[in-house]
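User: Sorry, what's this?
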Amino acid sequence: MLTRRGALRVGAAALLSTAAVPQLGWAQTARYTVRTDLPKQTIQGLGVEIQSDSIGSGNDGLPDARTSVPHDLTASERTRLATDLIGRGHGFRYIRLAGGLYLRGLSADRKNLRGRWPEQMQELASLISTSGAEGVNFEYWSPPTYWKTGDSYIGGKLKRFDSAFLNDFGDAVVRDISYLNNNGVKVVKFGLQNEAPHTVTTYSHANYTDAEYISTFNIVAAKVRAAHPTVRIHANSWDGQSRASLRNGLNLDLVDEWTWHRIGKDSNDQIDNASLFNANKLGKPAYNNEFEYLDNITSEWRMVNTAQSIMNWFTFVNSPTWYWLHALKPTYNTEAQGYALGYWRPADDNDFSKFGNIQKGHFDYELRNWRAIVGFLEWMPWNSVRYQVDEPTVRRDQRILAFRQGGRTGKMVVVVTNRGTAPFTFDVDANVASGFTGYRYSLADWKRNVGTRASGTFSATVPAKAIEFWVQN
């Protein structure tokens, strides 16, 4: 059970006693060289989704209740969500906003999205401005109901795919983006449809065949580009550039980025399948814009796996960003543990046998998810630049990432992880003159100072199930 301060209440004594016992045996060691002569991609920053309207437990249904954040939180907790979670350190850059799901109010003609209650847009605008996030990655889970078969957010598809209908729909999409911008919710990225190939019957969705997606995207994206030229447009929020039918049919001048969903995958995925993620990018970046654990559980192993997923997308796919699914989930949603960086208690949750320390209108962290990510928020400013690291062996349970903070003249940071069961020593030549200070993130530690090294050539012995950030002094 989590306390308000982010430490484990149940099992805390066990954690402390474990930390106090030296780990026996010799640590394995490997040598790594940071190639300061080989800068790679600019890392824009990380993204996270916000549940700004209700969804049924287990993703089953769209309740009338307004169960959401920041709406459910007290004034002080809204500020804490914005500054301690979304905006901690350098903060999440992008907030993923699910159109037709977590923003699903309708205009009188049902053609356009609106806030579902009077304060909803101001709540989102305040979250963005207080957190310092750049804006939202706005994507439809479902278009507004006027455009759908069945006149419903759940299931179905667009009613027609002829040019006249799609042009009218494209004009409505432009109005939705303008509505968000005019209400202080700046749209910086746009996606036509979340997981378009699938058929979903329990929450907001629209299905597209490849041909339907192509014809719709080419018309809608052209209108978005003309009306909002700074918005980055991505495709296809499932399997990126992998389908030849999409690559051959989409107007590639309108595709700025390829987006993948490799949900809850072992971080080895980016090592073993690097050729898949890097093939046919056609000069456009590819990245994962949704990551969570669908079996609704997490663990210490998964904590490090999540960190390594971030690192491996950057290292093996040259991705500019990476997204976790949800900032917070309600205390009574069964999927919450695998989906959320923390939990909040809605006003209608009176079952204090679960998360008894969390009061109504308050939230607390799921440490096994949060500590996987928080170090990147604290030490990786937007527009940091990755550098190649030469590895004698590409290890799966011990990973390394190097970047300069905020650009090519910033401080060097070396991130190292140990997903294994025994300590591991990284001997690092960072190729810089000054020394480094290390900070450890684990289930027991949040930003624990683990010492200073006098030079840019240093050793770091990382215990099992831990993540360390070594920051140039």
The mean pLDDT is 94.
